[in-house]
């Protein structure tokens, strides 16, 4: 329910605060060109995010020791049956990434980029993305995810890229959780 509220808020904010030449419905359209294929860029950035997050997880396990980073409530929902698993998958892999990418990349990053260097805007929006998840244990990994999706958005010019990366990442996490 919280994710649906977040999506509604994101769409409302975007509708009423987007610049006149930036209509909300065009956030996923991007500036496509043959030289800049968003699908190829998305695959590249997704590989990057999975590699870096895996390496930081291994490093954290060596330095701090292994820790159960998965939410026990989420694990319980996933094991409750096929209907709850499917609904959880839809919320976690579609609704959450959609609303978060609209807020943090489509609204915040775009707004910050108009008044500062794009690099700084990516860093600030990624910090805010990490803080909003309220997870001290995963702050650095969330920051990496925010930076990666932010850079993908900046490079491709479309939220479709950052949404796809975020969605696939969340799906991998869910499948890992189901299998553990």
UniProtKB/TrEMBL annotation:
Pfam families in the record: Rce1-like (PF02517)
One GO BP annotation of this record: CAAX-box protein maturation
Domain (CAAX prenyl protease 2/Lysostaphin resistance protein A-like): residue spans on this chain: 84-172
Entry's Gene Ontology molecular function annotations: endopeptidase activity
PANTHER family listed in its UniProt record: CAAX AMINO TERMINAL PROTEASE, CAAX AMINO TERMINAL PROTEASE FAMILY PROTEIN
Name under which the protein is recorded: CAAX prenyl protease 2/Lysostaphin resistance protein A-like domain-containing protein
Organism of this sequence: Brachypodium distachyon (Purple false brome)
């Amino acid at each position: 329910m919280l994710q649906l509220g977040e999506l509604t808020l994101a769409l409302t904010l975007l509708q009423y605060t987007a610049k006149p030449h930036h209509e909300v419905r065009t956030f996923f359209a991007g500036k496509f060109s043959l030289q800049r294929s968003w699908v190829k860029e998305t695959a590249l950035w997704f590989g990057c995010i999975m590699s870096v997050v895996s390496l930081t997880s291994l490093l954290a396990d060596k330095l701090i020791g292994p820790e159960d980073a998965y939410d026990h409530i989420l694990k319980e929902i996933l094991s409750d049956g096929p209907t709850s698993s499917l609904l959880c998958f839809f919320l976690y892999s579609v609704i959450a990434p959609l609303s978060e990418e609209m807020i943090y990349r489509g609204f915040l990053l775009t707004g910050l980029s108009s008044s500062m260097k794009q690099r700084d805007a990516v860093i600030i929006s990624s910090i805010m993305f990490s803080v909003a998840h309220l997870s001290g244990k995963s702050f650095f990994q969330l920051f990496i995810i925010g930076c990666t999706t932010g850079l993908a958005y900046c490079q491709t010019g479309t939220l479709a890229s950052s949404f796809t990366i975020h969605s696939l990442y969340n799906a991998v996490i869910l499948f890992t959780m189901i299998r553990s």
